[in-house]
């Protein structure tokens, strides 16, 4: 069933005959499985007119009429809620600045009423909510559903986020590191229809990474796989919150960049000074790009992904430099691999992690549709 | 069948009843599969006496009486041939210094007669050779079975190694990057019985890495996954053969270390000078360990493996420093993960890659026994 759903997702619209071809299942099996999925409201039939003769064919696609998924991103400076249908269409977005708030109680003062309102609205329109996906700063304890000790995120140490959310809202709840939710946004709704081996790098107040291999999140033994922001870039450099020295995050995140420039305290100001040719600002930007290049070359030589996606609140300030950075990187990669370098901006901008949080639930639906729907009924 | 073989390998000796428990297959299926595997000569029955009452039980284990595997390592300074039985026991080892040889023709002058002799001896003793596994300096083109342009290994660019070996020796031939074969030696014959998520780091003339996740080699999109020696450790550092600057290999390999010391030209001399307290030698060793620590912290924060295994010709010179390096690393890791740090020396020392080359063929036998045996018959 999972395989059939994955094929439908890849093709967006596909006939039963094509499903038989692509899965190798018998047409009887396809008939039964698609019948069941239609009954469940996960997929539906469309009539498509194809070719010159205008022959009508019955196609299958995801059904956006019965279910909704909620994605929630709890960030260091913002929180965002998105509502997504089964076609990956974002039907609602709510964003709030959280930069003056600190710790779970303070955050839930904002989140609680908004999420209750969203839930009520979806249900009053007659939709069923499949689940709540949540992106938060990592690392976390996946078994317990708690945050561990996220750097630069005071008050959240050991917070039992998953069980709190489940109790508050009564929804199937999946939580994940925000760099990994961001990667999942590409994997399911963005660029992942064509490539399922990617590294997402989110740069903002911190720098995080989400590694997707063969379409699956790779977490590592302690949930630390993909902590690209905590690779040492400056040997014997500044102490980092994580315990290491000279991490990319200490020099390449927004605070890291601004700590190397005395002329102001925002990226807007830095960029204006760079445009005005201010020498210290130029040096700061040059070093920032050098750190970025080093981070990226290490990502290539360690993970060798098909695709690197850059996102986060820092990215827009560096976007103009992406082309020269890529050209420079090509000259530093193994010659045979240099033409395959592929670095692109994220599809959903500042909503990336919230959309990816919803994508977590969508991924669960595709891998275990019957189990998720049973949880939803219960 | 693959699952049954994997369970037998994990337990070394296991009864049919335990196989039913561990696989969830029916006892009828286990009876049939084990019968077939016994007929094929892959496994055999043993009688084991267990418990106080001395009850006799029929156990199953791998059969070392019918098959042999040959492992070949083609290195930058040595070549080695090992012969391994199906229990992973090394029954023969041949090693040759190759430091005055250059390029395939020169190497095959040595390899050809030795490998022919080994093959003839195995066959004259009545064994069947399952295949030839080969470790070589990467990167390589796996589809074509050719080397690409390995750094510091002149004359081998684009060499069609797999087809040449197949034609010369008529054996099923698998080729792999030598850091990955080294990792496979642990995965199948070494420490991998208890942990299947490991990174092997081989340090010698070059520095390479082999990443094993859930028991499988991870190659990446271009075969570059795990090129740990080519992560930038010294920003804006020395040019490396790979195209990048400041790679760990440029400062942390044997030539990289010796390039930072003017007092001699061997690791033995450097270590003697360190013991004698010669200041430049002490500084060189201190920096070497700092680079090693940085390399290792990056490996942890990027891959988060259960186990890191260190090997290669450099390792013995650094072995005495492993404990302080580990202690220092613990203080630099995320606090919650620091007790799980586990770095150990390789099981097979200088024979690691050759043993791992044989392990490639063993892995193929376990995943597709019928296909490999059919190739062997043909």
TrEMBL record, chains A, B:
One Pfam family per UniProt: ROK
Ribonucleoprotein among keywords: no
InterPro entries with a match to the protein in the record: ATPase_NBD, ROK, ROK_cs, WH-like_DNA-bd_sf, WH_DNA-bd_sf
GO biological process, one term: D-xylose metabolic process
Keyword list, A-Z: Carbohydrate metabolism, Xylose metabolism
Keyword Coiled coil: no
PANTHER family, A to Z: BIFUNCTIONAL UDP-N-ACETYLGLUCOSAMINE 2-EPIMERASE_N-ACETYLMANNOSAMINE KINASE, ROK (REPRESSOR, ORF, KINASE) FAMILY
Role of this protein: Transcriptional repressor of xylose-utilizing enzymes.
Family statement drawn from the similarity comment of this UniProt entry: Belongs to the ROK (NagC/XylR) family.
Protein name as annotated: ROK family transcriptional regulator
Protein species of origin: Paenibacillus ginsengarvi
